[in-house]
Amino acid sequence: MRVKTVSAFAGLLALCFFVQPANAMSPHSLSVGIGGVFPYTEIDTGPLGAGDQRVGDNGAVVGLRYLFASTPRIDVGGSIEFLSTGKEAYTIGTAVGEHYMNSTLLMVNAKIHPETTNNFVPYFLGGIGLHSTEFNFDLSPAPGFVWSSGNPTETRPVISDTQTGMAVSLGLGVDYNVTPNFFLAFEGRLDILSKEEYEATAYGQSIGILQAETGATNGILQVRAGFRFGKVSEDSTSNPAPDQPKTMPAKVEGAI
Predict the structure, then answer these.
(1) Which one in 74, 88, 124, 243 has a CA-CA gap of 20 to 30 Å to 151?
(2) 3-state secondary structure of 21
(3) Main-chain dihedrals φ then ψ at residue 248, nearest 5 degrees
(4) pTM for this model (two decimals)
(5) CB-based burial of residue 51 (10 Å sphere; 0-12 exposed, 13-18 middle, 19+ buried)?
(6) φ and ψ at residue 234, rounded to 5 degrees
(7) 177, 244, 190: which is closest to 216 by C-alpha?
(8) pLDDT tens digit string along 54-109?
(9) Separation of alpha carbons 71 and 112, rounded Å
(10) Quick one: which of 181, 159, 123 has its CA closest to 43?
(11) What values do phi and psi take at 207, rounded to 5?
(12) CB 63 within 8 A of CB 32
C-alpha cells in the first residue's frame, strides 16, 4: 500500500514538472499548507492563583486555500484552516493545570504581489472571516498526589466549551514557481481570533470558576505546495500584430 501511494505521488509530481501551460500563469490556484502554530495570548487563572498562563503550547496547523488571479497583481479567494495547540501545563499547588485550543478558521483572502516575472514572487496576504474554537482547561493531580474523592488520578475538565467569532489574518510569504503549473511557498502570518466567553463545566463551577473570557493571537509558520490550473486569457499569451498601414491599389502601367 505504501509503495503504491509513493508511486502515485511521484507520478503526480512528474506530471507537474512536464505539463507546461501557455506563456502566462493559469488564473486558478489550489494549495495545501502545513506548519506550526505559536500562541501568544495569556489567560488569568483567577481563583486558582497560578497567574497568567498561555492559552496553549506550540502546536500544528493544516489548511487548504483557493485563489483566483483577478488582476496581474491581486488574487482573491478563500481558505479553511485547522489548528490545534499543544497543552500548556503548569503546577497549581497539588494539581497540574492544562490549557489547549482547537480552532477551525473559514476565511476570505486577498493576496497582493508584483507581476510574475521570475521564479520567486513575494506577497502580502490578508484575510477576514470566522473561527470556531474549542477552549479546554483541565486539572489533574500533581505527581505524588491523588483526588480525595472519585477516580483518584483522573483528569477533570474545568472548562470545555466551543464558541464562534471573528478572525483576521495578516501575513507575508514568497512563492517559488517550480514550473508554471506547480509552486511551493513559505509563509509567516498572524491569526487573530476574537475574544469570546467560554463556560465552565459543573466541576469548574464547584471550585469557583464560572467562565473564561479569552481570544487568541497565534503566530503561524507554514510551508505550502500548490497547483495552478485553468485557461489562460488570450490577451496575456499573445501579442496582437501591429496595425498594417492602409494603402490604395497601385496603378499598373500598361494594363489592358
Answers:
(1) 88
(2) coil
(3) -90, 150
(4) 0.78
(5) exposed
(6) -60, -30
(7) 190
(8) 999 999 999 999 999 999 999 999 999 999 999 999 998 899 999 999 999 999 99
(9) 10
(10) 159
(11) -105, 15
(12) yes
